[in-house]
């Protein structure tokens, strides 16, 4: 009985994975009916790791390949190209460098609770 359940589960999974790949699918956009449309540019950042400046804290030297300075330049350029844009950060922004550790320790001081209106400096820059 257990073997047949495993086979059935495996077959169901295989069909569920393979069927969408081989069966034809179509998507139809709704008619516009003269309504306005909006173009939206979606921007995202990822793995900034509190690299606010173009500086490698571990090698103690300037590095123009990292930093929010470079990222901000690219984001601002993309925003100039599009009238409507939205910026998302995918994470790993608040840890990863000595600066991030320093800010985290300042924020997490048990003697000074965090003000609910506090915004992390990295997100203020974005």
Automatic annotation (TrEMBL):
UniProt signal peptide: 1-29
InterPro entries listed in its UniProt record: 5_nucleotidase/apyrase, Metallo-depent_PP-like
BP term (GO), one: nucleotide catabolic process
MF GO annotations: hydrolase activity
Keywords on record: Signal
GO (cellular component) term, any one: outer membrane-bounded periplasmic space
SUPFAM superfamilies reported in the protein's UniProt record: Metallo-dependent phosphatases
Protein name per Swiss-Prot or TrEMBL: 2',3'-cyclic-nucleotide 2'-phosphodiesterase
Originating species: Bacillus wiedmannii
């Amino acid at each position: 009985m257990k073997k047949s359940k495993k086979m059935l589960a495996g077959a169901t999974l295989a069909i569920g994975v393979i069927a969408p790949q081989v069966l034809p699918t179509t998507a139809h956009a709704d008619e516009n009916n003269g309504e306005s449309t909006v173009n939206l540019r979606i921007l995202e950042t990822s793995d900034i790791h509190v690299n606010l400046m173009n500086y490698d804290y571990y090698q103690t030297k300037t590095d123009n390949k990292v930093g929010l300075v470079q990222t901000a330049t690219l984001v601002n350029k993309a925003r100039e190209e599009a009238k409507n844009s939205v910026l998302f950060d995918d994470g790993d922004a608040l840890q990863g460098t000595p600066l991030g550790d320093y800010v985290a320790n300042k924020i997490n001081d048990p003697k000074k609770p965090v003000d609910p209106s506090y915004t992390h400096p990295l997100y203020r820059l974005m």
